[in-house]
Input
Amino acid sequence: MNRRELILAMMAAGFIRPERASAQIVPAQLVPLATPKPIHESIAVINGNVWTMDDKVPRAQAVLIQNGRITQVGTSADIRRAAGNVRVIDAGGRSVLPGFNDSHTHMEFSAYYFSGLQVDVHTPPLKSLQEMFARVRERVAKTKPDNWVLARGSFNIHQHVTEQRWPTRQELDAISTVHPIIILGGMHGWSMNSLAFSRLGLFDPLQADSLRWRDGRRRMGSDVARDADGKPTGMVTETFDLLPENAHSFEEKCEAIRTQIVPQFVAKGITSTSTIPLFDDDVRVCQRLYSEGALPMRVKTYPVVPFKMGLEEVLHGGMLPGFGDEMLTYGGIKLFVAGAGYNATLQRVTDYHWNQDDLNDAVLRAHDAGLHMLLHQAGASLPRCLEAVERAQMHSRRQLRHRLEHYGSLTDEEMVRVKQLGMRVSITAPTEASDGPSAAKFPRYRAMIDAGLKPVSISDSTGTVPTFSPLAGIAGLVAKQSDGGSAPEGQAVTVEEAVRMWTLWAAESVHEDDVKGSLTPGKFGDVVILDQNIEHVSGRDLFKVGVRSTILGGRTVYGA
Output
């Protein structure tokens, strides 16, 4: 019996779901790749208000980039003399900063949404489930039977529609029984129709209970809402590893990123991202674009454990952080400790994905192997994370800046412990000016900086929040709540501190500060020129600041 026959026999016996089996039978996308060439060009930026983020030379007028690297920072006259025949850009007195490093995104999945591969059902602008269903019907009418229809909505859908609830399975069945349909409200919870439940192995309670994490452990934290007969009512949580790999073709994914990476990332001044792939094709898509010379920002990947890969797979793969080159590289792992903190009936829970002993073992093994970890936790799971990292450091001489994701509401005692462990903390940046007092989830900006934690600001872009940018994040951190920001009284930071959270501190938190994060000779020539001088901009006016040009390795990849 050959491999194909074995897989088909296992399908017939019910050991492999058709979705997964087809992915195994069909050969991986084999793409002849040209030898990638990193961007190494030369340019001089003069007459700017340069914020270097380098304490040795905090302010300057001009920057010289030669063969992709910064070679000199100083006055415009000095740089003109040193530039020779290098192309010169006059910044016209505008602010010049290091390129932004958005160090936690789902860049590929964002592009699939922004490109229109997935149906837009965000609330607002939509106000009801019926309006959402109308858009899904339109897509179904244009989609061949048996093909997936994925729709993207806002976080907490039930709070933003007139019906004050999530879509039910029966309502989605009424739209189609021959198209598997998913309406996502973020990556932690969504609603599906009957065919989608069946395709993903979640309709039958016994079959769902038999599903395991990629490392073979029994699933913890996943949930399916069921009625008295055990049938799904519509909503599931913490099952994003089951999202269909074949919802979009490889070529569609390539085109999505090719068309969306500039308007959604590079045009916002982002020159580097740490992305968490959600589909098996995601890294291959980035490789394809890089080989074509169509990757205009630096990409570092962090596979998700245990959702997309088991730790054993990662360790036996042999890659260490830094594998790759300066444009496309491997960073480490995102370790899911707990999810969003609610189950499929919207009850608040701490949806752990590990017990303490298993987590301790996983963190120790990853740490000992030199894997940098982004630890996704939800407040109540913080003690588990800290215990695991502390034990790992006690048993290893390695010093790694592991990071706590999405959490800045640390107590003073927790801040002391996090700093002692050499860890960093990321906070999800606000995306637009608010019209009133904010119920900010991460309010202790000032306290974290004063405690020496060097917090990092991230977008966590997936497409769930359609508008995001580092500049909006900076404005939200600096402006008071009365001015549209998210900082409570006494917790606002300075503009320079907020910029550091998107540049130098972001680079430090993913072990890239030797080549990124500041305009320092020897580092990559990654620069963003703003559309005005922000030296004296404050309050709500910060939300009006935009990007004029983005420069990567000396090449202008966006703007004038």
